[in-house]
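Running log. JK asked me to keep both predictions on one page so they can be read side by side. First protein, sequence followed by its tokens:
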Amino acid sequence: MKYPQFDKSEAGGGATPSRAETRVEDTWDLTPLFKSTTDWDHDFALTQRLYPVIEQYRGRVGESATTLAEMLNCDKRLSQLIERLYHYASLRAAEDSSDAANLARESQLQNLLTKVGEASSFIMPEIMALDDATFAAYLAEPALAEWACKLEKLRRLKKHTLSAAEERLLALGHSAIAGHDEAFSQLTNVDMKFGKLTDDKGVERDLTQSSYSSFLQKRDAELRHRAFTQFYAEFDDHKFTLAATLSNSVKADVFRARAANYPSARERALFQDDVPVAVYDNLIGSVRANLAPLFRYYALRKRVLGLSQIRQCDTYVPIVGSVEKVTTFDEAVELCLESFAPLGSEYVNALADGMKKNRWCDRFENKGKRSGAFSSATFSAPPYILMNYKDDVFSDVFTLAHEAGHSMHSWYANRTQRWQDADYPIFLAEVASTFNEELLTHHLLEKTDDPQMRAFLINRQLDDIRGTVYRQTMFAEFERDIHAMEEAGEPVTLDTIRQTYRRLLEAYFGPDFTLDPQLELECLRIPHFYSAFYVYKYSTGLSAAVALSQQVLASGDATKYLGFLKSGGSRFPIPTLREAGVDMSSPAPVEATLALFARRVEELEELLGE
């Protein structure tokens, strides 16, 4: 079965509106998926009736190429139906997870998916039971021509596929094993309350996971620290529950890896994309070897902001305060469209229609809405974008560009590839998203001859590289370490989690940085850690995006890049990017991005007279 993937990321006055109080024009239009919840109920009931049909192929998958093709097409029809159900239910829950009907819909579907998984659990073992000669002969048959790519990818999993009975048990246990993710989401998005905080204009505002980023960009250092302290006080109150949730997430990863005969949870995660472990370790090694420019940047921040000491809550406010910007959502859309002009009229016009006419984007925060931002697409529906846009947080313009990159990646792939080959892995997704951020940076720098604005934009690019390469690599190292602890039989408890994270904070922030004790709890609130071995792809993705964007801007030719978008998941990530013009099996792209960071620090020092 194939299900849509989400890009979960951290997000970023007055009271936060309820969903019912939100203007319709500021919400996404989900009617292309289902006209109403009644229609969803109808298709859910239809799926309940139809899914047992897959059972007719049990014990017959390998009898001929024709039978295998029939089974795959039957599974495809069922999967496409489930995909739409899943997409709608997930988006409705994301827009308001305090709505009982939205949660019930997700729960209904999760129960059904367990049954579907059990019914179809024989498919993989029976495909893998084919001997190599028979498998090769079947692939040469015209009946399987459209499935060759998918089958070759599946075949790689042969040594990690269990017997039909064992696969059935894993399918039955999926929901229970994955329960940590839902528990984390409900606790942090619904149950946890952060209170109110008076901002720099004297307005009392809700402190939420979304508005927290807005407070961290205020010029008042004391306000930033108050927001930090108040925000983390709530996490401190729930630290044992969160630590247990994270520990169970790690245990689940290790269980899945051991059950399927992988050497480690990390290798299981990387195997799916055929990414060598060396790529992960080279990333950490390259970043560790280039921390000096980051420490230099923190020292510059401290001097320019006039701080006696620099804390983590001081790392998000723009250094160049005189060009603090208020940018409406509509203005942000126009800036993005202008920036993407090098990609051609088809790209720009399709995105403009989606954002302006067809309501692809759910724009602003409301009570119960999932924090952060994501793009979510399925084969037969628009690529939707969830935002919690704040007009006083200029980085949200870049977040919009980022998610638009994901959406247009899906738009191209779904129009070029077959359903079974369109869905691209996250490793590639993070290239398309950060590529757009690079185009936006270039466009804004080209538009200005004001030294202050240039300094502001360079500051923004530095923070982007800091947050995407340095920070996400620290996260990747944390994930590697806590999984290794579990695999070695060491305790993964609140104390050991905090100790491990503290060591990384000290290494990545340097000796002249003030680390508040509460920051040790940060690792408990990062959504990515509950879906492990995802974050390293942010770092590799940005590094690839820097290289590809420079190629497009220098040559004026986006043909190869658009070919990359259109390729979807038809090839593995490393060869796909190599075809587009960048070799991620080498540490060179990461090192080039870190070198760009070092140059930009020097340029910012000059612009600011430091």
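And the second, directly underneath as requested:
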Amino acid sequence: MNNVKLLDCTLRDGGYAVKWTFGHNTIVNIFSRLVASGVDIIELGYLRDWEPFDLNRTSLPSVKDFDRVYDLDVANKPMLVAMIDLGNCRIENICDASETMIDGIRLTFKKARIDEAMAFAKQIIAKGYKLFLQSVSITDYTDAEYLSLIEKINEVKPYAVSIVDTYGLMFDYDLMQYFHLLDHNLDPEIAIGYHPHNNFQMAFANAIGIINGRAKHPLVIDTTVNGIGKDSGNACTELMAYYLNENFGRNFQISQILEIIDTELSKLRETMTWGYSFIGFLSATNHCRTEYTKYLLAKKTLSIDSINTILSRIDRNKQTTDFHEAHIAELYAEYQSRDENDADAVAELKELLSGKKLLLLAPGKSLQTEREKIGQFIRDENPTIIAVNHVPENFAANFIFVSNDQRYGRILHLLRKHHDRMRIIVTSNITKEPGAYDFVVNYSTLTAPMELKDNSMLMLLQLLRRIGGAEVWFAGFDGFSDDEQSNYFDSYLVLNKGTHQSGINDAIRAELKKLKSDLKMRFLTESRYEDA
């Protein structure tokens, strides 16, 4: 099938994995191998005129800068293209096509900027370039909107127009719907392109579906070597080249593509990841950008069920157009603050705990290193023991307090196993399981200031103040260090990776000082908060 062109965008879309800083030797090696492989079109990178020139990057400020990076005398040169996200490169930084090695420009644009994109596209064509139009997030269009877009594209007459599955949301039936709209309504001289992403592991299969769809138009299929790209990545160049060799008589040199994987991408895999992931899957099933999913996962307070619920509430107009951090933060806060009538639970807890000597067990490392001291205190004082977000192995807790949905999921089997000997208190944000809780208290009434909003120990102290005060002893409430592994007695309890925000210990200390007027607090084990 000679009307199918293979477009490799490793040096552009693959740049997301390395922030486009491949290094000049790697750039040249990838480019040379792609030329030798015989791929039809190579995308060399992004045009972004607000970035400085750097020989080691494939995101460059002007068209002529590509000639500086790819200063090579190439025999049997394939078509070479660069990409512009509408608004990222002024027309003044695009020289005439006759003055550069670049043959074509791919212009991406969002639905809200169609008319602006068409006007800019005409300027690019006037400079002699083959123009590729890439309307991002194709799934945002209704059929009527897409037909209207096609009419405007026919007026511009680009070289190609692509179906861009920006967030990897489409299965074959979704894809073919857009494909047939294009194939039946697009000017017959304009090629149809397909740019897939792999959130549903459908990129390669969908590309094959396009190829076998008996298109009336020439086709351009986008791929990257080894699928390298943002998050879930792309269809693989080596797979598509092999498929076209085996089924349509092409003669791509697969070994040259595999050399790129062996000599360059294997090294990158040691320090970074791309390809199918549950983050990509979770985002695609909720029809949203991965930034939203990453934001919620980074909270380390939510179950997957809770994350799905929050993602499903994203405003439809904000799902894929841009990442709206304030919007997802508001949805998170609303979800966590679900209220329940906890008057009976609080009254019963007041009867059980008010005026008692309480030993609060946080999951800090001192719970293990000072185990004997804690055990002696329990034998001498016989306190009521409340463990926070964990079920202790060495001490028989009377109560377990859980405010973190992710920790609740991890200890759920222990809560059920030991429910006969301890009472379980959960906050209202928890995705509760039958047989694994006794009391539900309102999350919103217990939260501290924003930077400490989800701190479980402070939430428990607020509850204890609410039920009338008590004598409180702390064990395992060590405070945070930059080494996350050293903060807990068991590495299994580590949820976060990396360092904590600077000043979090000071913020906790300040909150403890506020609580001193209502609670008598003492530290049994060593803690960064003893001077609070």
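Observation for JK regarding the second prediction: The first strand starts at residue 4 and ends at 8.
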